[in-house]
């Protein structure tokens, strides 16, 4: 681990912005999906990818907000190629509809940025009766990736360009429940901890990317899968802390927290930078390879999460597939 603001092996640091880490990179001809692209670092990720010539599909829950963000980006980046599509990751039906619509549009897919997420909410069940953080942060992205993987494989084959899948995890993966993933207690309200449930979902993002990287490598497919920690972002404070705490932390915020352009940097670096070519199954923070919890590298646990997630998503397919 390096000091906050000091450069790592990549030449970038926690202070680097998304524009800085993609400077000189040409993304023309690439198509990306960015989930949660209408707020926070999702907006900046979409903007910077579009700035570099990538055709960005903004997958958002609220298409009205998405359309406004698109309008703002086009004003800043004339000629930006952006589309807005509806996606509610907490609903498997919505994920399936999005994937069907995307395939019907005949679009290629080079980059899948699994960015959207919710954090530390009270105990709530999703439309599919699954704890909301697990459903939104992990399961929705797991299903989305699964449904779009063939499209990515075809694009990679036809374009002869490496496909990249980026899962937004978090250092919070270190603060999951003691057993890591509570397979038999996902919906246990009595022992629910909003912070640990968030950590669990972020650990699953890591395990998902690692198992995916392993499978893609074994299949000889030119697609990488990595996880990233964006950093603690200034804009998230108000949402997750009470007023007193936000004020106290705000006083030192500029020294320890990232701005939105800095928060989107690692995503954009891993999605576009040539330095990351061929790198797969890694965990990045501050636009450098970082060290995840040993549990996140547990191959057996990764496979167990994969099988568990497959079972959960398959069990819903009968009632939601067309």
Automatic annotation (TrEMBL):
<dbReference type="Pfam" id="PF00106">
    <property type="entry name" value="adh_short"/>
</dbReference>
<dbReference type="InterPro" id="IPR036291">
    <property type="entry name" value="NAD(P)-bd_dom_sf"/>
</dbReference>
<protein>
    <submittedName>
        <fullName>Short-chain dehydrogenase TIC 32</fullName>
    </submittedName>
</protein>
<dbReference type="InterPro" id="IPR002347">
    <property type="entry name" value="SDR_fam"/>
</dbReference>
<dbReference type="InterPro" id="IPR055280">
    <property type="entry name" value="TIC32"/>
</dbReference>
């Amino acid at each position: 681990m390096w000091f906050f603001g000091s450069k790592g092996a990549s030449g970038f640091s926690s202070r680097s912005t998304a524009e800085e880490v993609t400077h000189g990179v040409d993304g023309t001809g690439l198509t990306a999906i960015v989930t949660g692209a209408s707020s926070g670092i999702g907006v900046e990720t979409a903007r910077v990818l579009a700035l570099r010539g990538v055709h960005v599909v903004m997958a958002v829950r609220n298409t009205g907000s998405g359309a406004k963000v698109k309008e703002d980006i086009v004003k800043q980046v004339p000629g930006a190629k952006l589309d807005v599509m509806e996606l509610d990751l907490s609903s498997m039906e919505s994920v399936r509809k999005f994937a069907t619509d995307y395939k019907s549009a005949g679009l290629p897919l080079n980059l899948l940025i699994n960015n959207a997420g919710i954090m530390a909410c009270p105990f709530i069940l999703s439309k599919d009766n699954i704890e909301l953080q697990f459903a939104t942060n992990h399961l929705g992205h797991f299903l989305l990736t699964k449904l779009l993987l063939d499209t990515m494989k075809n694009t990679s084959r036809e374009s002869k360009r490496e496909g990249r899948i980026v899962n937004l995890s978090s250092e919070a993966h270190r603060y999951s429940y003691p057993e890591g993933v509570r397979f038999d207690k996902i919906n246990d309200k009595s022992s629910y901890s909003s912070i640990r449930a968030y950590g669990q979902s972020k650990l699953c993002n890591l395990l998902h990317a690692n198992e995916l990287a392993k499978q893609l490598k074994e299949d000889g497919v030119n697609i990488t899968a990595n996880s990233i920690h964006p950093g603690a972002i200034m804009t998230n404070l108000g949402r997750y802390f009470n007023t007193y705490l936000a004020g106290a932390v705000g006083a030192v915020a500029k020294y320890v927290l990232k701005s939105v352009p800095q928060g989107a940097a690692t995503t954009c670096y891993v999605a576009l930078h040539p330095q990351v070519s061929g790198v797969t199954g890694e965990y990045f923070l501050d636009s450098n390879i970082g060290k995840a919890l040993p549990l996140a590298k547990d191959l057996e646990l990764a496979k167990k999460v994969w099988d568990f997630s497959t079972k959960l998503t398959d069990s819903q397919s009968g009632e939601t597939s067309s």
